[in-house]
Amino acid sequence: MKKSLIVMALALMMSLVFSGLLAAEEGVTDNEIVIGSHQDLSGPIAGWGIQVKMGLEMRAREINEAGGIHGRKIRLVIEDSAYDPKKAIMATNKMINLDKVFCFIGNMGSPTALATKPIISAKKIPQMFPLTAASGFFEPHDRYSFGGFTPYYDQARCIVKYFTEIKGYNRIGLMYQDDEMGAIMKKGVEDQLAVYKLQMVGAESYKRGATEFSSQIAKLRKAEPQLVVLATVIRETVGALKEAKKIGWEVDMCGMTPAHTKLIPMLSQGAGFSADGFYCATQTPYVYADSSRASVREWWKRHVDWFQKEPDMPTSAGWAGLYYFSLAAEKAGRDLTREKLIDALETFREEPDEVFGGAPITFTPTNHQGAFTVLMQQIQGGKFVTIYPEIIDYRKAEKLKAK
After folding, report:
1. How does pLDDT run across 130-166, given as a tens digit for each residue?
2. 218 lies in the same domain as 74
3. Which pLDDT tens digit goes with each residue over 15-48?
């Protein structure tokens, strides 16, 4: 009888131990939260990936030095995808199965992050703020996937809203990359023009990798637009600006976040002309050491002190992803689970960007897009300067007013 009681007691103890293990959330212990991210650290966009990595590390250090989130420190696991979808999948499986990460933040690039998205969601692991403006992270709706950055479609609509309502333009043209990115940017321009019962006066495409844009610019000039929207990245933006300068065409040109980089004024200067006057829609004002925002100046100095390198826009994007995670994790409470983190994220309503002054973030139980708005900047004196003091939101019927 005594022996059977001992056996029963041991069995009960073992069941309690195992039930406790089963109840524990992967990636969360009493002392830490394990967060994964795959970045291009050695491939064609390593310049972005390395900076995003520093942004994640910077915010993790800030959190940890402040005592963590409900006493738990952040431990980052960052793997190199080399901007290769196959390597991204291998890295993701490693982080899920070996590192037991709690969630993913800031996975790099449309092809790589989209390749790993279904794997992560199938495991019911949250993923947020991928470094891409592709809509595949929130359309169709997926409880475990969150965007964060203003999509290209919304950027394009905001550009048209600004130039029609503030500048009074009614003749708008487009130069766009002949791929998925260019197509969604083009649709945004078309849909917003339709609001004003307008159509594009000209639209010229180019193949990805093109280096010559004389034909496109010549055809657009004949259409006599007041604005050319550039659905372009870096080299193509500089190429379009250079061609317009070469033929003496004075026309406003406006790009989107792929062109929101210091490389535009730098490469233009190297090509023998100034990019001053170029407009760009952006989610976040460009970060500079002498920013008018004290929070940006402090952030910049801290980054230089810690990494001995100047930050750039990708750095702020990585930092922001972990910043918004920390807000949601604090709200979720000490008993942190993946489901509670998602519930907390879905309470975000116009959550402000306190440090950089960018677009606010909104997540709901049925919409995980995140950001919908832009700020309008222009290159002046070789630097991106905000030229309209308010957030531009194409969803609002109220017309923008000149400030």
Report:
1. 998 888 999 999 999 999 999 999 999 999 999 999 9
2. no
3. 444 444 444 699 999 999 999 999 999 998 888 8
Distance of alpha carbon 118 from alpha carbon 109, whole angstroms: 15
User: Among 231, 230, 224, 220, which residue's Cα sits nearest to residue 277?
Assistant: 230
**Residue 357 lies in domain:** 32-149+292-370
Total domain count, the chain: 2
- Nearest CA to 85 out of 56, 117, 53 is that of 117
Between residues 235 and 24, the one the model is more confident about: 235
Of 357, 379, 148, 361, residue with least CA distance to 253: 379
User: Bridge partners of 374?
Assistant: 392
* Max CA distance (Å), the chain: 101
What is the SS3 assignment for 142? coil
Same domain, 121 and 232: no
Amino acid at the residue 154: D
Same domain, 104 and 232: no
Looking at residue 186, which CATH number applies to its domain?
3.40.50.2300
pTM: 0.86
* Residues in Cβ contact with 401 at an 8 Å cutoff, skipping those fewer than 6 apart: none
The conformation of residue 143, written as its DSSP 8-state character, comes to T
Residues 39/52, Cβ–Cβ less than 8 Å: yes
